[in-house]
Input
Amino acid sequence: QVQLQESGPGLVKPSQTLSLTCTVSGGSISSGSYYWSWIRQPAGKGLEWIGRIYTSGSTNYNPSLKSRVTISVDTSKNQFSLKLSSVTAADTAVYYCAREMEPPSFGMFDYWGQGTLVTVSS
Amino acid sequence: EIVLTQSPATLSLSPGERATLSCRASQSVSSYLAWYQQKPGQAPRLLIYDASNRATGIPARFSGSGSGTDFTLTISSLEPEDFAVYYCQQRSNWPPAFGQGTRLEIK
Output
């Protein structure tokens, strides 16, 4: 059974860079044809897809965040990571990592991490 | 950008009743729609993908239907553990996007 676990600082200062890592266990991040995504949810609000990465390193980002987002992968550690620059209070949210289903049902998320709360505050 | 509108915002029902949740897309998403359940403090859980396919381990009381712009999630007989927030999500147009959610509460 695949498991995902987010890790990283829970508090980030405004204008700084938010950095999170997702560790995948129960299987190799490189096996299959999976994309690995980051999704966030402000308190009491809905879900926003941030971006995704394939194990080849190919990425796609939400246009609304593209200028500030970088997602990378480290297959040797079975991890992928999120960096979000120039954060403001609006970036305060629970951040989830998730696995997309394989084609043809890509773009739907069948495994999720438990989520990690990141607060942007000085 | 495709907008998903879920209705009602809140649905109050009793255990054993039938729940019908709606998701309407601003333009056709074909059958590229998923439903998720989220309980407080937990990650979303995939229930239905490609409009009508139950995800692994999802009970048969959950069913999805629809195509194009109008979709429905039906819970045939509510169990106490079904009271939660439900989200629809499309992946027809990039980026993937979620509806605002329907809260299913105990009456």
About this structure: Chain B touches chain A through 24 residues (CB under 8 Å).
